[in-house]
Amino acid sequence: MENIYSEVAKRLKVLGVHYATESDYAIIYAADNAETTIKNETNLDIVPEGLKFVWVDMAAGYFLQEKKSLGQLKICGVDLSEAPAKSITEGDVSITFASASDGVKSPEARLDELIKKLINPPQSAYARFRRLQW
Description:
Elements: H1 4-14, H2 25-42, H3 52-69, E1 87-90, E2 93-96, H4 107-119, H5 124-127
Antiparallel strand pairs: 1-2
């Protein structure tokens, strides 16, 4: 199997994390953590080739989750540093922005949704590879 750390770094770059490199310890840790999770889900000693993309996505999700929780996540085009203004009043003019209660998701909510999807692949992804343990 191709270098998994390199694949995770490429996936993160596609997601807008341009500073990710395969030698970054956070990527190595996330990939190893994802590998252990997949092995536990399938009861196998190795990650099958057919679960390569699940492995890469899960590792990318773990990386994003850790960096976001530490306040270190920098994604091209997404500003997570400050909460957006809900309304602005200038003289007689008042503008109120749509919010989650109006069905609009903030960039952070969409990012959280993506991370959840990356970390939690559908159980059907494991079905073909799962081995029973007695």
